[in-house]
Amino acid sequence: MKRGRPVSLLSAVECHIHLRLRVGEDDDMIAYLGNLPPRKRASAVKAALRNGGMGPGPLVDDSSDDELLAALEDFLK
Fold first, then answer.
1. Verdict on whether the full-model pTM lies above 0.85
2. For residues 20 and 29, is the Cβ–Cβ distance under 8 A?
3. Exposed end of the chain (fewer CB within 10 Å): N or C?
4. Where are the beta strands (DSSP E) in 1-77?
Protein backbone atom coordinates (compact mmCIF):
# COMPACT_ATOMS: atom_id res chain seq x y z
CA MET A 1 0.00 0.00 0.00
CA LYS A 2 1.41 3.40 -1.02
CA ARG A 3 1.56 6.14 1.55
CA GLY A 4 1.02 9.86 1.12
CA ARG A 5 -1.05 11.94 -1.20
CA PRO A 6 -2.07 10.42 -4.54
CA VAL A 7 -0.36 11.85 -7.61
CA SER A 8 -2.45 14.60 -9.21
CA LEU A 9 -3.13 14.58 -12.92
CA LEU A 10 -3.46 18.38 -12.94
CA SER A 11 -0.55 20.58 -13.92
CA ALA A 12 0.83 22.82 -11.19
CA VAL A 13 2.21 26.35 -11.08
CA GLU A 14 4.82 26.87 -8.39
CA CYS A 15 4.78 30.27 -6.70
CA HIS A 16 7.34 31.12 -4.03
CA ILE A 17 6.30 33.83 -1.60
CA HIS A 18 8.58 35.37 1.00
CA LEU A 19 6.95 37.27 3.87
CA ARG A 20 8.70 39.50 6.35
CA LEU A 21 6.39 39.88 9.35
CA ARG A 22 7.19 42.53 11.93
CA VAL A 23 6.84 41.95 15.66
CA GLY A 24 4.38 44.45 17.12
CA GLU A 25 2.77 45.09 13.74
CA ASP A 26 1.98 41.61 12.41
CA ASP A 27 1.58 39.72 15.69
CA ASP A 28 -1.72 38.17 14.63
CA MET A 29 -0.21 36.64 11.50
CA ILE A 30 2.93 35.57 13.36
CA ALA A 31 0.80 33.73 15.91
CA TYR A 32 -1.49 32.22 13.27
CA LEU A 33 1.33 30.88 11.10
CA GLY A 34 3.38 29.88 14.14
CA ASN A 35 0.59 27.62 15.36
CA LEU A 36 0.47 25.74 12.06
CA PRO A 37 2.69 22.82 11.13
CA PRO A 38 5.15 23.99 8.43
CA ARG A 39 3.59 21.69 5.82
CA LYS A 40 0.13 23.23 6.37
CA ARG A 41 1.10 26.88 5.95
CA ALA A 42 0.70 27.00 2.16
CA SER A 43 -2.82 25.56 2.46
CA ALA A 44 -3.66 28.13 5.14
CA VAL A 45 -2.43 31.02 2.96
CA LYS A 46 -4.46 29.72 -0.01
CA ALA A 47 -7.57 29.45 2.19
CA ALA A 48 -7.06 33.00 3.52
CA LEU A 49 -6.72 34.38 -0.02
CA ARG A 50 -9.85 32.55 -1.14
CA ASN A 51 -11.80 33.86 1.84
CA GLY A 52 -11.42 37.52 1.08
CA GLY A 53 -7.76 38.30 0.71
CA MET A 54 -7.92 38.60 -3.07
CA GLY A 55 -9.26 41.69 -4.75
CA PRO A 56 -10.71 41.88 -8.26
CA GLY A 57 -7.27 41.75 -9.84
CA PRO A 58 -3.86 43.34 -9.84
CA LEU A 59 -3.68 47.01 -9.03
CA VAL A 60 -2.64 48.88 -12.14
CA ASP A 61 -1.70 52.54 -11.94
CA ASP A 62 -1.36 53.78 -15.49
CA SER A 63 -2.42 57.37 -14.90
CA SER A 64 -0.01 60.22 -14.40
CA ASP A 65 0.03 62.57 -11.43
CA ASP A 66 -1.19 65.40 -13.69
CA GLU A 67 -4.24 63.39 -14.71
CA LEU A 68 -5.02 62.55 -11.10
CA LEU A 69 -4.63 66.18 -10.02
CA ALA A 70 -6.92 67.35 -12.86
CA ALA A 71 -9.53 64.77 -11.94
CA LEU A 72 -9.38 65.85 -8.30
CA GLU A 73 -9.75 69.52 -9.24
CA ASP A 74 -12.75 68.69 -11.46
CA PHE A 75 -14.28 66.71 -8.60
CA LEU A 76 -13.86 69.56 -6.13
CA LYS A 77 -15.43 72.22 -8.41
1. no
2. no
3. N
4. none
Sign of CA dihedral 22, 27, 29, 32: positive
Burial of 68 (0-12, 13-18, 19+ CB in 10 A): exposed
Report whether 11 contacts 39 (CB < 8 A).
no
Residue ranges covered by each domain of the chain: 11-52
Return the DSSP state at 40.
G
The one-letter amino acid code at 61 reads D
Look at 41 and 5; give whichever has higher pLDDT.
Answer: 41
Residues in the chain: 77
C-alpha span between 20 and 23 (Å, rounded): 10
Residue 5: φ, ψ to 5°: -75, 140
Residue type, 58: P
